[in-house]
């Protein structure tokens, strides 16, 4: 078996499921992540006061789409079942959504706050330009590249390469504005989870009701609809969270107390509206693989399936 030097772009579910498998198979894997932490859209906002908001993917439903993922979740002490959705119980990380992903990065080289800004071909490898948050650049060579970032970001890096021309025209991703707000006392809202409770809201969740969370302060996550998020896409964060807070008050049906914490986050590429339809896309020479949930759908299980399938394909060529 040739020990390949492999770059994985993105430390979300797809990137980590792929990297862990390749690392166990003996490959030299380096993961590049532009954010400060692991998980991608399986994200948790932690405040200096110790509040938790799962402001990305709020839970894992239908893990049976990816049998390996389902097996991992059911045997993981960092995962529990949230019964707020009686028609379809969901898995959540404990005490935060992304907690269960951290063991996947053990024994891997992970470079956080590191964005890939350019990819160029050398004689027999690919050269990556790595731009870090501190403004410094470095250059690293790899035998193979695996991209697991959202389709629009992958298009910026790979869209002009022969073999990927036109691929991204078939995929559409939509944004999502998310409100995170906490109150000192529990709000008198009977349901901890509501789907489409209002015309502008996709999901409303009492985050502090999930297993492993402190019940107070009362922490809420509201995710706006595609339509609302698109119409307010370039809103500044302060204006967005005030608008979303007003929407939450309309749903509650009573004046909200003064929050102890409030902010909003814009996910520019939150959900896949039109998926490509395959687990991954390889470059004709096998040196680049495009993966991520956008190829199959918009769930955590889709992301896991994509990343795991890329690792399996590479291992089979060893």
Give me a quick take on this structure:
With 318 residues, this protein is an alpha+beta fold.
Structural summary, described in words:
The protein is of the alpha+beta class and 318 residues long. The chain folds into 2 domains: 5-43 and 98-171 and 276-316, FAD/NAD(P)-binding domain, CATH 3.50.50; 173-272, Polyamine Oxidase, Chain A, domain 2, CATH 3.90.660. Helix content is 21%, strand content 31%. It contains 6 helices and 18 strands. It has helices spanning 13-24, 67-74, 151-158, 226-231, 237-252, 300-316; strands at residues 5-9, 28-32, 45-46, 52-53, 79-82, 90-93, 109-111, 114-121, 126-132, 137-142, 144-147, 172-183, 193-198, 201-206, 218-224, 261-274, 281-282, 288-290. Strands 7-2-1-11-18-17 form a 6-stranded mixed sheet, with helices on one face. A 5-stranded antiparallel sheet has the order 13-14-15-12-16. The radius of gyration is 20 Å and the shape is globular. The mean pLDDT is 94.
What's the structural blueprint in terms of helices and strands?
Elements: E1 5-9, H1 13-24, E2 28-32, E3 45-46, E4 52-53, H2 67-74, E5 79-82, E6 90-93, E7 109-111, E8 114-121, E9 126-132, E10 137-142, E11 144-147, H3 151-158, E12 172-183, E13 193-198, E14 201-206, E15 218-224, H4 226-231, H5 237-252, E16 261-274, E17 281-282, E18 288-290, H6 300-316
Parallel strand pairs: 1-2, 1-11, 2-7, 11-18
Antiparallel strand pairs: 3-4, 5-6, 8-9, 9-10, 12-15, 12-16, 13-14, 14-15, 17-18
Helix pairs in contact: 1-6
């Amino acid at each position: 078996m040739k020990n390949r030097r492999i770059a994985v772009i993105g430390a979300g579910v797809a990137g980590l499921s792929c990297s862990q498998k390749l690392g166990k198979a003996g490959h030299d894997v380096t993961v590049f992540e532009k954010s400060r932490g692991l998980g991608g859209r399986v994200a948790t906002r932690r405040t200096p006061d110790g509040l938790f908001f799962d402001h990305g993917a709020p839970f894992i439903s239908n893990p049976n789409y990816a049998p390996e993922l389902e097996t991992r979740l059911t045997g993981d002490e960092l995962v529990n079942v949230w019964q707020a959705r009686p028609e379809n119980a969901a898995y959540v990380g404990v005490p935060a959504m992304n907690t269960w992903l951290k063991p996947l990065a053990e024994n891997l080289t992970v470079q956080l706050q590191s964005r890939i800004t350019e990819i160029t071909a050398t004689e027999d490898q690919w050269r990556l330009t790595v731009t870090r948050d501190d403004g410094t650049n470095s250059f690293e060579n790899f035998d193979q590249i695996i991209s697991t970032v959202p389709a629009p970001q992958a298009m910026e890096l790979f869209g002009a390469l022969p073999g990927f021309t036109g691929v991204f025209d078939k995929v559409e991703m939509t944004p999502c504005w998310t409100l995170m707000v906490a109150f000192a006392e529990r709000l008198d809202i009977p349901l901890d989870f509501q789907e489409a409770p209002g015309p502008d809201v996709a999901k409303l969740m009492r985050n502090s009701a999930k297993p492993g969370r402190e019940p107070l302060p009362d922490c809420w996550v509201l995710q706006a609809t595609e339509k609302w998020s698109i119409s307010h896409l370039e809103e500044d964060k302060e204006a967005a969270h005030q608008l979303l807070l007003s929407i939450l008050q309309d749903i509650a049906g009573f004046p909200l107390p003064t929050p102890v914490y409030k902010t909003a986050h814009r996910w520019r590429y939150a959900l896949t509206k039109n998926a490509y339809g395959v687990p991954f896309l390889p470059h004709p020479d096998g040196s680049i693989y495009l993966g991520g949930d956008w190829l199959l759908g918009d769930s955590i299980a889709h992301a896991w399936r994509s990343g795991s399938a890329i690792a399996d394909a590479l291992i089979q060529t060893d």
